[in-house]
Amino acid sequence: MLEVDEIRDVPIFEGLQTDHLQTIAADAELVELEAGQVLFENDNTGENFYIILRGEIQITSPDGSYEKSFAYADVMGEISFLNGARKNVTAKATESSRLLFLRAEDFHRIMNENTALGYIVYQNLTEQVFKRINEFDLPDIANFIWI
């Protein structure tokens, strides 16, 4: 079972009250992976997202030209979660890892039932997405986003 203290310091939940964190903890699932286990593969559906609570996950593009490691408090799958696109990387644990897993339907239900919680999380999630976009050297990405 997910404990509130495991997610209290996660940036995407920054600004939430304890009762909000309890709501999320009650609906989230935990995923435990050993080193080498695949979390998701390229072309999987994007109807959920993950937050790393312990360990490290590495993503790799299908052709191997892009690799990136994620660790504590990093959110994974948020972009495909928001736009419904299929995942375009494979994610694999590089060490024993523990992740929060939240399905889209549960996430949206929680957000609709508590608009204050929803507003804060969406605001934090938006900041996360922009940080992720800024990691890429794509000078025209901002123009593409706003079209």
Describe the structure concisely for a colleague.
The chain is of the alpha+beta class. The chain is built from 6 helices and 8 strands, in the order H-H-E-E-E-E-E-E-H-E-E-H-H-H.
Provide a descriptive summary of the structure in words.
With 147 residues, the protein is an alpha+beta fold. The protein has one domain: Sandwich (Jelly Rolls), CATH 2.60.120. It is 38% helix and 24% strand. The strands form two sheets. A four-stranded antiparallel beta sheet has the order 1-8-3-6. Strands 2-7-4-5 form a four-stranded antiparallel beta sheet, with no helix packed on it. A hairpin with a 6-residue loop joins strand 4 and strand 5. Helix 4 packs across helix 5. It starts with a helix and ends with a helix.
What number of domains? 1
Q: Classify the beta-strand content into a percent band.
A: 15-25%
Radius of gyration: 15 Å
Fraction in helix: 25-40%
Biggest sheet layout: 4 strands, antiparallel
Order of strands across the widest beta sheet?
1-8-3-6
First-last Cα distance:
42 Å
User: Total number of β-strand segments?
Assistant: 8
